[in-house]
Amino acid sequence: MTGAPTLVRVEDADGLRSLVLDRADKANALTAAMLADLRRAIDSVARDGIGMVVLRSASPALFCAGGDIEEFASGPAMLAAQGEGLRDVMLALARCPVPVVALARGKAAGAGVILLAMTDIVIAAEDLSLVCPEIAFNMYPVIVQAALETKISAARARQLCFSGQPLAAPAALELGLVTDVLAAEAFDALSARRLAFYAERREALAIARKARLRMEPPDSLAARIASLEPLMHENFSRPGVQDAIRAYLARLRGARAD
User: Fold this and answer.
1) CA 51-20-253 angle, 5° bins
2) Which of 55, 146, 210, 241 is the most buried (most CB within 10 A)?
3) What confidence score (pLDDT) does residue 258 get?
4) What is the mean pLDDT of residues 227-240?
5) 244: left (phi over 0), alpha (psi -120 to 50) or beta
6) Considering the domain 8-185 in this protein, what is its CATH number?
7) Are 67 and 30 in contact (CB under 8 A)?
8) What crossing angle do the helices spanning 218-237 and 241-257 adopt, rounded to 10°?
9) Where are the extended beta strands (E) located within the chain?
10) Using alpha carbons only, how large is the chain's radius of gyration in Å?
11) CA–CA dist 200, 139 (Å, integer)
C-alpha cells in the first residue's frame, strides 16, 4: 500500500533544510495538515542542527495560492484548524533561531504572501506576483496585514490588502518585501547561485536573525495575532461572504470539469 502523498517535502543537506511545497495540482493551496507539517519542520531546526531554512515550491510556475478554500469552507471546524495552523506557522517562523530564505516565482496569494513576509530573505523571479485577494469575497485579510507589517509600513500593508491588485516583483523589491529579483527564464540556475551566496554567509545571516529576534520580539506578534484572530472568523460569518466563496468554488469545479 502507498501512503498519502507528501505535500510538504522536508529535505536536509549541508545544514540547510528545504521545505518544498508540492501540491501543484491545487496551486500549493495550504491545508491544515500542510501547515502542521511546516510548523513541525521549523520548530525542530535547532534540535536537528539546521543552520538555515529554505522555503520553495516544487512547481516552476507558482509559489502558493494561499489557504485551501475548499477545506476551510467545509465547516467551522476546518476553518478553525486552518486559522490555528496559520497562526502556528507564523509564530514558528517569527521564533525560528536560524535565518529563513524563500525562493519564489509565479503567484503568491493570501497565506502565500504571509509565508514570504515572515522570511528574512526572498529570492524572487521577475514573474513573481503577490496578491491579497480576500477583498474580492468581501473579506479583509487582517492576518495577512499583520504579517506584511513585519516588513513594510502599516499604510502600505493596508493598501495591498484593500486593493486586491497584484504586486509585481520589481515593486515588491522597492517596498522591501523581496530581496533579489532574478530573470524568470534562468531562475533555477540564478537562484541556486544566489542561495549559495547566502549559505556561504550563514554566520552573518545568523547575526541578522538574532538582531531581528531582539528588535521584533515574537511575543509581540503573538499578541497581535491573538487580538486579530476573532476578526478573521468574523470575516467569514459576514452576510454574503460564504455565498461568494461557494460561487467561486463552483466556478473552479466547472473549470476543472471542462
Assistant:
1) 155
2) 55
3) 62
4) 87
5) alpha
6) 3.90.226.10
7) yes
8) 80
9) 8-13, 16-21, 52-57, 100-104, 107-109, 121-125, 129-131, 167-168, 180-182
10) 18
11) 43
| Chain-centre distance for alpha carbon 49 | 24
Please give the grid coordinates belonging to residue 127: 514573474
Per-residue model confidence as pLDDT tens digits over 11-37: 999 999 999 999 999 999 999 999 999
Element (H, E) at 193: helix 187-200
Hey, what amino acid is at 253? R
Cα–Cα dist 104/84, whole Å = 24
Cβ contacts of 220-225, under 8 Å, gap ≥ 24: 221/90, 221/91, 221/94, 221/146, 221/150, 222/91, 222/94, 224/146, 225/87, 225/90, 225/91, 225/143, 225/146
Contacts of 170 (CB under 8 A, 6+ apart): 126, 181
